[in-house]
Amino acid sequence: MTASASGPASNPTDPERDPNPAATTARTPKSERTREQIVAAALRLFREQGYQGTTMRAVAASAGVSVGNAYYYFSSKEELIQGFYDQMVTDQTAACVEVFAASTDFAARLRGALLAWLDAADPYHEFAGRFFATAAQPDNPLSPFSRASSPARDSSIALYRELIDGSSVTVGAELSATLPELLWLYQLGVVLYWVHDSSPGTTRTRLLIEHTVPMISRLVRLSRLPVIRPLSRQTAELVGLLRGR
Amino acid sequence: MTASASGPASNPTDPERDPNPAATTARTPKSERTREQIVAAALRLFREQGYQGTTMRAVAASAGVSVGNAYYYFSSKEELIQGFYDQMVTDQTAACVEVFAASTDFAARLRGALLAWLDAADPYHEFAGRFFATAAQPDNPLSPFSRASSPARDSSIALYRELIDGSSVTVGAELSATLPELLWLYQLGVVLYWVHDSSPGTTRTRLLIEHTVPMISRLVRLSRLPVIRPLSRQTAELVGLLRGR
DNA sequence: ACTGGGTTTCGAACACGTTCAAAACAACGG
DNA sequence: CCGTTGTTTTGAACGTGTTCGAAACCCAGT
Asked: What is the CA radius of gyration of chain A?
């Protein structure tokens, strides 16, 4: 990690280099090919040698390009991780089609969605630690809250919207709008735990899911109770307040 | 960041170099002096130039030692951050003495404790991002959940125990044991938000506190209600289950 | 004083992420 | 074909975190 010479914010003019992040479509000519080769090589090496163990020189060599060329497409090593991120959302969404078709029970659907994420992420468990660490940095474009990852975030939230709407549960009016976002936050928490989970087969995380899903489900149902209603309202307000960074 | 040559776990035998982390006591001879000079220089530079902007060479020079010597005491640049961490807990605890003396109202005390943390951490806001990022790494000794930071964690949890016990609130039996730990987790969440908060004067974080403290307070009181009790119990169980990593 | 072993300090050397100026290539108008 | 202009590719060079073998220092035991 090299310091950025002078000021804090490095490049003053940033005229958007990235052509298009659309998944597999070959938008621009076949430079898209090179890009894919690089990200593929990176993910493979990350899986095999971990994040730290993978050098940019190795990625470039493995992709059959020069180091400089890798940097032409990805402005840093961290940015290569976006590939991983995208793949997670894609895989989870795909797996959820089946899950959602199987049951309308809220808890079952929530459980399924989380397990789907876990399955998709499993091969990258070791390297995910490094990933979420860098992603946790505020200014970092990879942060789950950042501008740059809003497409991934939005589609993840949309997934939870679908999870709720297709389920048999009735959500109180106050929470209805914000519940998907809350569930997304909950998933973030589970992921955070998973990252730290070194138990064989990530048993602990699965335990966490088995135990928390019923609690969430119960909470959602309770949210309509008169005693709880103010809390629901406050929660919804809070989310609204804190959003829009 | 250099790769660790061969396997994932680097050094096979790790015969504990660190003499003793006790705060300011000059335990071993006056090598302790050097250590302090280094950490002081580091914190100062971090504050002035940020984490990235501070080079190990600069830290060493500013402390009047050689680069190699700095590495004799701290095995990495990240490890220098422990100094920051320790200072936070110390400052917060000190400030809370006054806060706790001033009121027995649960919400007031909780609010005060959080604001105390905020005040202590404020000068390091920019650099805190980098800090928590690396701290978020599972294997990292700086992780708030790790073995290495258990003293800091324990004393933080103890602080919350005191906060509760000295307050006028009555906690349900099920939650009583685990509530301090839960509050510590809550604080972790606030800190996480603070790290990402770029509003002037960290207004947003203060808003978050003003809004969530009453909610927490309400939740704690509700925790004894018959409808909620099972949830409290489950929560307590969960914490017990997941602890003991 | 001298010796020997431990601790502390040094700074050159290394590996890696990143940058940059220039070369190679592609596309197109004459 | 030849220039011109824009895109892609290259690899040497730079700055930084980190390592390592050797020097300097300290201090008890003789």
From this structure: 20
